[in-house]
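Dear colleagues,

As part of the handover before I leave the project, I'm documenting each prediction I ran so the next person doesn't have to rerun anything. This entry is a single chain, and its sequence is reproduced below.
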Amino acid sequence: MKKLVVTVLILLLTLAAFGCAANGNVNEQEIETAPPAQTENGTTAEFKPELGGIRLGDSKDKVIQAFGTDYEEDFFDDDYPFGEPYKIMDYDNGITVVLGADSNTVLEIATSSPETTTNLGFKVGDRSQEVLDEYRAKYEEPQSRHSYDTLTGWFIINDEYELIIFKFDTDDTLVNENVEPDDRIETIKLTNFKYMD
């Protein structure tokens, strides 16, 4: 009987050891295609959103590499709302990039150009329902700081509060009201929620 118990115990330990060893053999393709881990509030800690291949924090050189040198630049020595003086690079094709004057990095990017896409492939002119369905499945829409209303079409992407805003009408505000399924994206903005008042 003792021999049987020892044999079963050795067998179980051997199986456990093989199981642990097998878990360590994850191939690189599985790692690359695995979705980023989600945090408690549904945002992803590691994901960095892009607009036209540009991310927040990218350098001016990278912006020029992506969009070219044909832009007008204005300087603003006021540090509101970005926490430092800033420059606006304004391209004729509807792309606007805000750079920190001190950091020389991208603080915000906006587009009204249908040629500029997000990482998920959405662009100006796409249907609101398709965009909202895709982003709502992955990210959270925040509440307004001024009311308890959900900010439709605004999505906090990660724990750094990077924010993508899809604007579905042409009024002068960033807030979307009464969005219909067939409304089209008019502008897309990549920014940080901390810059929003």
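The mean pLDDT is 82. Strands lie at 71-76, 86-91, 95-100, 106-111, 154-156, 162-167, 187-192.

All the best with the project,
I.
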